[in-house]
Every structure is written in structure tokens, then in C-alpha cells.
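Predict the 3D structure for this chain.
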Amino acid sequence: MISLLCPTRFRPQLALKLYQTFQDTQDGKNELIFCLQKEDPKIKQYLEAFKANNITKFFISESMPTSYLWNQMALQAKGDLMTLVGDDVEILTQGWDTKIEEAANKIKDNIFVLTVDDGRKDKPQGQYMRCPHPTMHRKWLETLGYFVPPFFMHRYLDTYTQSLALKLNRFIELPEVVFNHLKFDHSNDDTGVRSRNWLNYDKYVYEKISHRYFNQDLDALKKSILK
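Done. Predicted structure below.
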């Protein structure tokens, strides 16, 4: 089973679209967990839409950074594979779950980061695919103590995680699976502006602080591979 983890705020229609594409394109039975926020002015619309569409896998949190919410959802997930998604995603590939599981199963020790196509075909620096929707095995969380690095608020989670995988030579690219990221279509709504406001803080943490943890995380993952 794959657990897709999605914090959502101010975007009930986008969350519903994600859920519908998730349901329509999977081969097996996976789970999509939503996290709502109490202070969201549209929480009533969420609850009405979820009830109407029989969406039961969600919980309601205080307003927190999305890194915290993704980590909390990972603790509740039932799948051995967990994927970070936002509410501005639509899944376009039929059988995406089978393709991800087949690629993941090739890594017997379960230490890897897998990325899918986010709808943008170019590769940064012409080298590796972007990694905005990383998939990791539960063993990644158990080894590091978290699913995504909790010292960021929202940004650089994927960059830090991808960098670890590249250092380990455990970065899996799956361009045939498309999780289309509608980021730029909704960047100026309430949630888009809110996440941009965290950019300078997360940039500072990435440049000034995160390297203090990186080598420790890398060593822990290496030891897990050797076991």
C-alpha cells in the first residue's frame, strides 16, 4: 500500500480533484490522508465535500508548518510507502501505484527516494528530475526519526531529502508517472501567498543550519543500508 499525505488549506475543490484523480487512476487500494486546519475559513466546505464524497481519511490540526503536518500524517499512515503531495496536484498516470511499487521493490533494503514527473519536463541543470513529491519507504522514517526534515517550515524539504538520496546513490527517477503540479496556477491564492512568506526563513535554515544535520542523517542512512 502507498499512503499519499496531503495537508490542505483554503482549497476544498483542489483537494477534491486530487482525491478523484487518485481514485480513478490507482490499480490497487491505497490511501490518501488529508490534514485540515482549524483556522481555515473554508473548513465547513471541506467537511461538506468530504462527507458528500465519502472521504473519511482526514484529521484536523491546529495551524502548523506543513513540515510538521506531513510528519504527523506519516505517523498515521498504514502504507509502507509514503508520498508527499500538496492539494495542488492531479494524478494523470493510470496505474501509478503499480509503477511506483515495482520501482521501489528493486531496492531490497528500502532506503531510497523516488520521484515522479511533476508536469515540468525540463531537469534543473540538465541533470536530475525535480523531487517535489518524494516517495520513501517507512524504513526512511524509522532510520531518521522523521519523514521530512522538521527544521524547515515548508520549502527545501524536497531539496534536502533529494540531496541525501543522491549522496547515497539511491535516487529513483520515474518519469513515466505524472503527478501534475498546479503550483503556478494557484500561487497567488491565500495558501500560495502563505507558503511564499516562509521562503526566507527556510532559505536561511537551508543555507546556515541544515548542514549540521545532513552528515548525521547521511551516516544513519548508510548504517541502515549496511544492516
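The first strand starts at residue 2 and ends at 7.
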